[in-house]
Write a structure and sequence with these properties.
Order of helices and strands: EHEEHHEEHEEHEEEEHHEEHEEEEHHH
Strand order of the largest sheet: 6-2-1-7-17-16
Strand content: 15-25%
Helix content: 25-40%
């Protein structure tokens, strides 16, 4: 039995792995390094183009529960993430290079995987998972449009800057994790601001020049990756309740909570690079240096990567794809182009598509993850009719309600998580 996967991002890699592990001979085609997109920088598979954070890792958090579901189903992405973990408090963050290289090596050496490095210009006739990503364009995009018969939708995504650790002024910054979580001493570097410093920064941010993006409108920005300058337009205090919120942090120099705090998170295993958490931006490069340099501790920061913005395209999936991300027999889609949003959600869609295509090829019923699991609930979300369909992160709101009311939020989330993992355990013999 044979199948093809187009695209070696997180979704395509996970789909290829699930197929190969089930005895399907997979052709995985990736256009890098022969053709690169504006968002990509290396030839390895599963490149993390924005943050290095895979977000929360606790079962009482929907994306944390999704990670555990994937671990139990045998996810390659989660295996790589756990091996490449770097300190990040209650979140799971990874060394980008170690993460991508593990996934690349695992697939290139798998006995059931053949890797082709070239651009795909049309959809192959054989059973297929399309995971070419939200920057899909050219002949492949035209082929997808002909196959789906639907107009594409789009939104804009942004990446945060990364600075060298040794250029951060630790006489002004301090180490701590919010509410004392994480390793002793703190997993984050924090740059505190008093009110006057914050107001100076805010005014400079409001006046800064931005890079033009063709067709850009504030209304087309995904909330989870909102550029900091767009978020700031909503009001002077908006950032203090968003990426600059000081709650749960105490400046050791004053013994008090700062007015605002920028957190920086470790980006590599060598502990040399830190990204500006929540500071996705489309400011011009000189403006990034000038405006972010007003934040205490970053006056002389050296940048390994500046923030950037790019267009993402996704399918109008409701009524087009089913809950298994299937368009029709033998043709599945996976990743951000289906309307799931986030690294882990993209990988999860690839997992579901790969598992279900493998079952289809073996002549077995496709497993029903149901909306009692996050894996199944995300598929239900993208396949349910919705006139105002927009990309969605994993959240408990898309899952089935509990049969009984639980008032305490933590107890409710714990019950949802236990029900989900029980469902996965019952499904494993079918997978």
């Amino acid at each position: 039995m044979r199948a093809s996967v187009i695209g070696a991002g997180l979704a395509g890699c996970e789909a290829a792995w699930q197929l190969a592990e089930r005895g399907i001979h997979v052709t995985l085609t990736e256009m890098k390094p022969h053709k690169m997109t504006p968002a990509h920088h290396c030839a390895d598979f599963a490149e993390l183009v924005c943050s290095n954070s895979l977000r929360g890792d606790r079962l009482e958090n929907a994306v944390g529960l999704l990670k555990e579901e994937m671990r139990r189903v045998g996810s390659l992405v989660m295996e790589a993430a756990d091996l490449a973990r770097v300190p990040a408090g209650g979140s799971l963050a990874v060394d980008r290079e170690r993460f991508s290289s593990h996934i690349t090596r695992a697939l290139e050496t798998h006995k059931n995987v053949r890797v082709l490095r070239r651009e795909v210009l049309s959809l192959p006739e054989e059973p297929l998972v399309v995971a070419s990503g939200p920057l899909t364009d050219g002949p492949l995009l035209e082929a997808i449009q002909r196959e789906t018969g639907r107009e594409q939708l789009s939104f804009y995504d942004a990446a945060a800057p990364i600075v060298y650790k040794d250029s951060i002024d630790m006489d002004k910054a301090f180490r701590a994790s919010r509410y004392g979580r994480g390793e002793e001493g703190g997993d984050y570097i924090n740059c505190p601001m008093d009110r006057a410093q914050y107001e100076t920064f805010y005014q400079a941010l409001m006046e800064a020049k931005t890079a033009p993006v063709h067709g850009f409108e504030d209304s087309k920005v995904f909330e989870g990756c909102m550029p900091v300058e767009v978020m700031a337009k909503r009001g002077m205090q908006t950032l203090c309740f968003g990426p600059l919120k000081p709650k749960g942090l105490t400046d050791p120099r004053t013994g008090k909570m700062p007015y605002a705090v920028l957190q920086l998170r470790q980006d590599d295993a060598a502990d040399t690079l830190y990204n500006l958490v929540g500071f996705q931006t489309r400011l011009l490069i000189p403006e990034q240096k000038r405006v972010f340099g007003l934040i205490p501790g970053l006056e002389k920061a050296r940048y390994a990567r500046f923030g950037a913005m790019h267009r993402n395209t996704f399918l109008n999936s409701p009524g087009l794809l089913d809950q298994d991300f299937r368009l029709r027999e033998g043709l599945y889609f996976a990743g951000q182009m289906t309307g799931v949003e986030g690294y882990i959600e993209s990988a999860a869609s690839g997992l579901v598509a790969g598992v279900c295509l493998a079952a289809e090829l073996a002549g077995r019923p496709r497993p029903d993850f149901t909306d009692e699991t996050v894996l199944g609930a995300m598929g239900r979300y993208i396949s349910t009719p919705n006139r105002h369909f927009q990309p969605m992160n994993a959240n408990f709101g898309v899952m089935a309600e509990l049969p009984r009311r639980v008032r305490n939020k933590q107890e409710r989330y714990a019950a949802i998580a236990q029900r989900s993992l029980d469902k996965i355990a019952a499904l494993l013999p079918e997978l």
